[in-house]
Design goal:
The protein is α/β, with parallel strands linked by helices. It has eleven helices and six strands. Helix 1 packs across helix 7 and helix 2 packs across helix 7. The longest helix is centred in the N-terminal third of the chain and has 21 residues. Bound molecules: iron/sulfur cluster.
């Protein structure tokens, strides 16, 4: 396996942020077993701050981890007007990162099929996903890494709560519908603000995300504003919401597929479960900041 040489000379602020991101990404990798020995990880690089950050941190971890895995950056050039096609190859070549760039004109398909003024993201993402899955197969990638971060996950949770009547978000690890691909989200514990700061500190050559001219999803925009307002009024509530996603009590919800309410009967012996959640809070999970470092990745 080829590991690109990567010897960054970082100033103190950048190094501090990089260490923080490495810890959180390492934690997610260890908690959800996102990357394993011998994996070939295809890192989807859009040119936005999140995917640059993802690639950068995985490169650092690749050098530090005691396991061996390959990374390949992949960009799908969707032929959006004004897309600076030379920017990513230049950046990736200059850093010696293996990459694959493929041009597919999904932009024209989306423009043709979606009426003017309507949000195009849903079809655009579906088309992109199809191509990325195909490319992963062609490259022999065992994992597909996407740059969704903690705030994307929390926003999606609220979008589903408020508009779809579903209690679901975006998982850190997912098997594709056809079962052939494993999609991973190593930034699942990382805040968007930290990625923005890191992108600034590292000076990534960002490609603007509005080249397609799509209207931003208004519902998502509203949810984002609502969560930001809430965070201003009650600092730390975003951390609490994110923590809740890995602290679920199915017996205190109402989904009979997750908890067998029908078979619930009284009993004469003490039960370790029952309504204990109502009387005693379960031991809180260790906050990410204080959690021990995931040794597998950060030794
Ligand atoms: S913002 Fe544009 S490029 Fe991004 S998913 Fe939406 S339509 Fe596609």
């Amino acid at each position: 396996m080829s590991v690109p040489t990567y010897t960054p000379k970082l100033d103190e602020a950048t190094e501090k942020m990089q260490t923080r991101l490495c810890r959180l990404v390492g934690q997610a990798i260890a908690d959800y077993r996102l990357i394993e020995e011998g994996d070939k990880v295809m890192v989807c690089l859009s040119g936005g701050k999140d995917s640059y950050g993802l690639l950068d941190i995985l490169l650092v971890l690749q050098q530090r981890a005691p396991i061996r895995f390959d990374l390949i950056a992949v960009n799908l050039d969707q032929r959006q007007p004004g897309f600076p096609a030379e920017m990513l190859p230049q950046y990736l070549s200059s850093r010696g990162i293996p990459f694959h760039i493929e041009a597919r004109d999904t932009y024209s398909i989306v423009k043709r099929l979606i009426p003017e003024g309507e949000t195009t993201c849903s079809l655009c993402s579906r088309l992109r996903r199809g191509h990325l899955y195909r490319i992963a197969t062609e490259l022999g990638a065992t994992k597909i890494a996407l740059g969704h971060h903690r705030d994307d996950i929390v926003e999606t949770l609220f979008l589903n709560l408020l508009y779809s009547g579903k209690l679901k978000a975006i998982p850190p690890k997912l098997r594709s519908k056809d079962g052939r691909h494993i999609v991973i989200r190593p930034l699942a514990l990382v805040k968007e603000a930290d990625l923005a700061r890191y992108a600034e500190l590292r000076g990534f050559p960002i490609i603007p995300c509005d080249l397609c001219g799509s209207q931003e999803d208004l519902k998502r925009k509203k949810v984002k504003a609502f969560l930001q307002q809430w965070e201003r009024e009650s600092p730390g509530c975003s951390d609490s919401i994110a923590a809740a996603l890995s602290n679920v009590a199915p017996s205190l919800l109402m989904d009979s597929r997750l908890f067998d309410f029908a078979s619930l009967t009284s009993t004469v012996t003490d039960q370790s479960e029952g309504d204990i959640w109502l009387d005693h809070e379960p031991a809180p999970r260790e906050p990410i900041e204080a959690a021990p470092q995931p040794l597998e990745f950060l030794r």
